[in-house]
């Protein structure tokens, strides 16, 4: 029989080890599944299942292709950013790093995706201080594209969720801070003075922030922003056609507002992949548009499966290859 001391030791081991993030993610996923199942049961299984069964193999394939278009465009954007740092990487290498990093999307705030920086270091010898801004500017570019897309969609939508403009503004401000070397460095310095912890880490972050200036090249900004806009529009359009197939009468602009807003809202929770927050926001906003729970629940489940979970599946498939190839890199022993 386990004592309280044994249980405490076990819990401490789990939550301070490499299993912490997967355990947290599994717990969040379980809660989301319980919530979705509960909603479906409350409205009647038959109607919910009938909506799911109405989707064909080719329709699901189209949703996956639109998601793949998003990931591919963002992968090209990652390569453009790497090129601005004069990293000797081919497009294939950049795509391998970018897609493989999706396997680490299960970590809180997706910090695990920094594994891409390790792969680049092994293959090119570039230091983390030099390549870390890649992760910063990539996330900032996503925020910018999603905020602009949300703002444009709000103009054409009949109405929008309260707070959508605030979320869009917050995303743009965060993107500006993350891509401006002086502002970012000042924020890092201020945060360190408030917390007073990890001085070496903050010094390295400040040094890395100086590299952000290399991404302010106008053609680079324009091209990467277009990649982000087109990519996120593809997933918003996937949400629109999914709802049309399932019988919901909602316009394209409104669907994009709901999808982008929910994705941003989920990300603000800091949960892995926005699990829980994104689904809750999506179902709530669809309900406000008059979509019954029996339709909004399966629609939310399907779009999350064909976007977030599809990305994680791709990452899990490519991660072993990316790790194996990077270990054979000329600088692997140094990383």
TrEMBL record:
Gene Ontology CC, one term: plasma membrane
Subcellular location: Cell membrane
Keywords: Cell membrane, Membrane, Transmembrane, Transmembrane helix
Primary location class: membrane
Domain of life from the UniProt record: Bacteria
Ranges that cross the membrane: 23-43, 55-73, 148-177, 215-233, 239-261, 273-295, 301-322
The keyword Transcription appears for this protein: no
Membrane-topology descriptor: Multi-pass membrane protein
Signal peptide bounds: none
InterPro entries xref list: L-PG_synthase/AglD
Keyword Transmembrane: yes
Pfam family membership, one: LPG_synthase_TM
The name this protein goes by in its record: Flippase-like domain-containing protein
Source organism per UniProt: Halocynthiibacter halioticoli
